[in-house]
Amino acid sequence: MASSNTSSAALPPSPAPSTPSPGIRRKYRLETEIVYMENNDQYRSSSVPIYQTATFKQVSSSEMGEYDYTRSGNPTRTQLERHMAKIMNAKRTLAVASGMSAMDVISRLLKPGEEVIAGDDLYGGTNRLLTYLGVNGGITVHHVDTTNIANVEAKLSDKTAMVLLESPTNPLIKICDMPKITAMVHKYRRDIIVAVDNTMLSPIGMTPLDFGVDIVYESATKFLSGHHDIMAGIIAVNDSVLADRLFFVINSTGCGLSPFDCWLLLRGVKTLAIRFEKAQANSQLVAEFLESCGLKVRYPGLKSFAQYDVHWSMARAAGAVLAFETGSIETSERIVESAKLWGISVSFGCVNSLISMPCKMSHASIDPKVRAERNFPEDLIRLCVGIEDPNDLIDDLKNALVTAGVVKSDC
Fold first, then answer.
1. Catalytic residue IDs
2. pTM above 0.70, yes or no
3. What is the pLDDT of residues 297-331, one digit of tens each?
4. Residue 133 CB partners (closer than 8 Å, separation 6+)
5. Is the N or the C terminus of the chain less surrounded, counting Cβ atoms within 10 Å?
6. CA 364 – CA 325 distance, rounded (Å)
């Protein structure tokens, strides 16, 4: 059994130094920081070593070393957490087994009788967990349209413990004004935790901690890893007390990310900037093509996007996820099933392009009546754009649209 040791293994100094010169804290540009990793390996290995071990031997029974049990800490995980803290503008990050593990850890800060204000368009897994907490944990969850700040303000009360935000939302691509909401919530009561799921944009597109939010978390399965070969989650904070509370849950439940998955994520994140740039460029071309076909497209990169100005007041990127409507569930099904290059799959942020119908896949766990109340189009198609040649992606979509009878071949 691991000891209760709270050495630097439990509390890794972060963010990691961004230059090899001792004592210098100059930062490179973000794209460089993502690639650059300080590695203090004794053999000066170019790649961070994998410490694939469950336990660490101690010098004596009374003097515990920096690491004792991988559930509590591991050098490979420490390296990942330091690196992620650096690129997320955080004082500390914590790596866990999945994006939903991250959300679960955050939710354990809540107590029975407390209330959460959350968006009305959330990732399906988040909605499922919040529903469970409402039924079994004594937590009251208020789902509101966060695009209107007044909706959030109206639900604030002495029982409010957390405000949970996504922007852009998945899959309706709704935008909330995070800086204004955060300032309003903290003015009402400073101890209310504002937590943000930033999976849709990654640190390349936005760093919400800059807006004063308390917790940022991401499913590292998506853009951070980029290859859909691991499950991982990252939690980022700037408050050391809050970080300790979160780490206590992780250490107690054993959901810390495994050494090998930490190593794979470290490898994947190095190409984040170039992958994200290509996927976003492709997304812009795909969105413009679909809009030219007369379809209703939801994508922050389009000037016609209703919340264009709000989005770009916060974000550095439009992302690589977009959605469009056809007006018919049957038509949407034909499009999805006629696509060849676009893989029918949930998730996003991968090098490969994916297509799905959220109401039948990623968000099927949300009751149809609830979806209707939240104006969730049943015919919505979500595109998660990868890094293929954009001409091939557009040609494949065009063929699918023609097959479904949506457009003519000359669209």
1. 71, 123, 197, 222
2. yes
3. 999 999 999 999 999 999 999 999 999 999 999 99
4. 107, 110, 116, 139, 141
5. N
6. 17
